[in-house]
From TrEMBL:
This is Protein RER1. The keyword Phosphoprotein does not apply. The chain crosses the membrane at residues 35-55, 61-78, 145-162. It is a multi-pass membrane protein.
Length: 189
């Protein structure tokens, strides 16, 4: 054989891995337009995860960690990419004008851009649920805890962070959800 055409085992593994990564990315790209189906699948995976936790009566720390991670993803999904508070501080230091979302009526409108786009939110949430489900297969992650305290602490954390996020949304007048494109009729003026 010609020495230039021979491949080392490392090169063979690398080429096989990159082929798998391309196939995986192609599947992700094909799933992009199917928002409802993606989220239904994720919800089913989450329900199966909690059924596993309920039936096994264990792995509460894994469930708590997953809940905290999903809460952080959700907050990033609700937050604007350019936060008016930090942008205002940055702009005040530079030129004295505030940037980001409009804070006064005469400010220029800028569209809402999420810190975490919907597709990445779905991807990272689904991936975390799958990792959490795999963790429930190993006894090392089944740390004995009093689970009602974890549940109560998670709900307190959820309500406090959501209250802060809603206050931020009210203060800077933005809504992170789109309820569909406006439909104009022929007779509307």
């Amino acid at each position: 054989m010609d020495p230039e055409t021979e491949r080392t085992p490392f090169e063979a593994v690398t080429s096989h891995t990159s082929a798998l990564q391309r196939r995986y990315q192609a599947l992700l790209d094909q799933s992009t337009p199917f928002v409802l189906y993606r989220w239904v699948t994720t919800a089913v995976l989450l329900v199966l995860f909690f059924v596993r936790i309920f039936v096994a009566q264990g792995w509460y720390i894994v469930a708590y960690a997953l809940g905290i991670y999903l809460l952080n993803l959700f907050l990033a999904f609700l937050s604007p990419k350019f936060d008016p508070v930090s942008d205002a501080l940055d702009q005040d230091m530079e030129d004295g004008s505030a940037g980001g979302l409009p804070t006064k009526n005469d400010d220029e409108f800028k569209p809402f851009i999420r810190r975490l786009p919907e597709f990445k939110f779905w991807y990272w949430a689904t991936r975390a649920i799958c990792i959490g489900s795999v963790c429930t297969l190993f006894e090392v992650f089944d740390v004995p805890v009093f689970w009602p305290v974890l549940v109560m602490y998670w709900f307190i954390l959820f309500f406090l962070t959501m209250r802060r996020q809603i206050q931020h949304m009210i203060k800077y007048r933005y809504v992170p959800f789109e309820f569909g494109k406006k439909k104009y009729t022929k007779n509307s003026s």
